[in-house]
Amino acid sequence: MESETMSLNEVAALLRLHPRSFSNLMAKGGRCPPFIRLSLRKKIWLRRSVMAWLAEQQQFTSQPARRG
């Protein structure tokens, strides 16, 4: 049974990013799944939130661009 929570390394692996690249993306305010801050340094992600975020991103990128 999979854990309900994910670490930074697990989320980065799911996104096919190096953990440092994922950390840098978050630090720069890039789009990333919502997380829970446990302390100044420690963050966790709820697996269901990460999967919902991924589905949302897939919908966003699969929509054709509107031309005005």
List keywords for this structure.
12% strand, three-stranded antiparallel β-sheet, 3 strands, alpha+beta
Q: How many beta-strand segments?
A: 3
- The tally of structural domains comes to 1
What structural class do you assign from the helix and strand content?
alpha+beta
Order of helices and strands: EHHEEH
Order of adjacent strands in the largest pleated sheet: 1-3-2
Number of helices, counting only DSSP H or I runs of 4 residues or more: 3
- Give the terminus-to-terminus CA distance: 48 Å
**If you average the pLDDT, what whole number results?**
90
Report on the biggest sheet.
Answer: 3 strands, antiparallel
Relative strand content = 5-15%
Short description:
With 68 residues, the chain is α+β, with helices and mostly antiparallel strands. It contains 3 helices and 3 strands; from the N terminus they run E-H-H-E-E-H.
Walk me through what this model shows.
The chain has a three-stranded antiparallel beta sheet. It has 68 residues and is α+β, with helices and mostly antiparallel strands. It has one domain. Helices cover 47% and strands 12% of the residues.
Q: Secondary-structure blueprint of this entry?
A:
Blueprint: E1 5-6, H1 8-14, H2 19-27, E2 36-37, E3 43-46, H3 47-62
Antiparallel strand pairs: 1-3, 2-3
